Amino acid sequence: MPKVHPTPAADPRALAWEILRRVEEGGAFADALLGHRLAGSGFSARDQGLVTRLVYATIAWQGFLDHIAGAFSRRPVSELDPPVRTLLRLGLCQMCVLTRIPAFAAVDTSVRLARSFRGGAAAGLLNAVLRRAATGWRNVALPDRAIDPAGFLSVRWSHPRWLVERWVAAYGLDEAERLLQANNEAAPSVLRLNRMKGDAASLLARLRGAGVDAVPSRFAPCGVQLEQGAGPDALPGYDEGLFCAQGEASQLVALLVAPVPGARVLDACAAPGGKTTHLAELMDDRGEVVALDVHPRGVGRIVRLADRLGLSSVRAQVADASVWQPPGWRPGTPGPFDAILVDAPCSGLGTLRQHPEVKWRRTPSDVTTLAHLQRAVLSHVAAFVRPGGVLVYATCTLSREENEDVVAASLGADTGFVMDDPRPLLPEPARQLVGADGCLRTLPHRDGLDGFFAARLRRMDAGGKVPA
C-alpha cells in the first residue's frame, strides 16, 4: 500500500484517513488501530474524540455515503482507488452524517489531504464531487420504500442488502429498521470490576474522583459504563488490575456458567480472555480454568490479562478446541470438567456498533461456514462435561444458523444434554433477556446492548436423568 505521510499532530482528519485506509485496504479493525494510534498522537481529548467519531461514522455509513457519492461522481465509486474512495467517504461523512462540521471545511480539508497523495492527482476529482454534494446531497433519491423496502433500508441505514433481507425476515420491517438504526450508534465503553479486588461502589468513586463520568451498568452486576471514551489503560486502577474492558452483554455469559470455587472449567475458545478471567473471579480464583485458543497471540493476551488482574487459576494454552482432548481422558469415560463454555467463533453481526467494518466483510457463505465450525466444536467438547455438569454455548451474532440451530443439534437423549433455565443465575433486571425457550438474547435496539446469544445446557447421567 502506498504510504501517506499525514501530520496527525496538526490535523485529526489526516489520522482518520490513515486509519480508514488501513481498514479498507489491509483488513485491520478500527478499534484496535484507534487505540494504538491515538495513544501516541499528541492530540487533545477533543481531537481524539473527533478522530474516533470520524472513523466509526465513515465506516458505519459507508453504504449510504457511496450512494451519495455515486450521484455526483462521473466515475463509479467502486472503481476509484481505495485511498481516494476512503477520503471521499471521509469528506462526505462530515457533510452528511456529522453535520455540525461546516461543508466548506469538509471540502477544504479533504482536498488538502488529496494533494498529499500521489502528487495531488485526485484533488480535482475530490473537489468537484464534494462541492456538488455540499449543496445537493439532501436531494439524492433513495430506493422507493414502497416498491423495494429492503433496498431502501439498505441504503438509508447503510447495511448490505443480504443482511437487511435476513433481518426483515426475522424481525419484521419496522423492528429490523430499528435494529439497523441502532447499529449505527456508538457503543458505550464498559468496564468489568475485578470482584477479587473491590466492589462496584469503590471503583465508581475512584473513577469519579478522577473526573471520569461513570455509572453502574443496567444488567451486569460488575459492569461500569463510562460516559466518555477514555481508553481503559489510562484510567485509575488499570495497572492495579481493578477492572478490565468488557461489554455488558459479554459479562452476562459467565454468569450462565456459574462456576463455584474449586471447580474445573474449560473455556474452549477463550481469547482475548474477558470471559476466562470473569470465570476465574466467580470461582474466587480457586479451582482451574483451562483456556484454549488456536492462536498464540490470543493465548498471550489471555495470560497478560490474567496476570494484570492477579488471577492464578487460569491455565492458557494454544490448542484447536475442535480436536483437543484433556490429558489422560479416554473416550467413553466421564468428562473431567464441571462446566464448559463455548464462546464460539462467529460472524460477529451483533457487535456492529463496535466493529462496523464487519458488516461490509461478511457474506452469507461465512455464516454457513461458521455454523459448521460451531457445531463441530460444541459436539467435540461436550464429551468432556461430567454427568450433571454444565455446557454453555454463546455467540455475539444474531444469525439463527449460528445460534438456535447449533443448540438444537446438541439437545436430546442421543446427545445427553437438556436445556437448563439460566434465569435464577442472573440478576433480576437481566432475567427479562431470557426468552420462553430458555435462551439469553440481547439486541442493540431493545436493550442497548450488543447482540448476544447464550444457552445453558446440562448433561444427563447414563440413565437419562439430570443428577441433583
Shape verdict: globular
Assembly state of the chains shown: single chain
How do the SSEs run, as a string of H and E? HHHHHHHHHHEHEEEHEHEHEEHHEHEEHE
Mean pLDDT: 93
Please give the number of β-strands: 12
Pick out the low-confidence regions: 1-9
Name the CATH superfamily classification of the largest domain: Vaccinia Virus protein VP39
Short characterization:
By secondary structure, the chain is an alpha/beta fold. It is built from 18 helices and 12 strands.
Tell me what you see in this structure.
The protein is of the alpha/beta class. Strands 5, 6, 7, 8, 9, 10, 11 and 12 form an eight-stranded mixed β-sheet that branches. The chain has a four-stranded antiparallel β-sheet with strand order 2-3-1-4, covered by helices on one side. Helices cover 42% and strands 14% of the residues. It folds into four domains: 12-139, Orthogonal Bundle (N-utilizing Substance Protein B Homolog, Chain A), CATH 1.10.940; 149-183, no CATH class; 189-245, 2-Layer Sandwich (Alpha-Beta Plaits), CATH 3.30.70.1170; 248-459, Rossmann fold, CATH 3.40.50. The longest helix has 18 residues, at 364-381. Helix 1 (12-26) packs parallel to helix 3 and helix 8 (149-156) crosses helix 9.
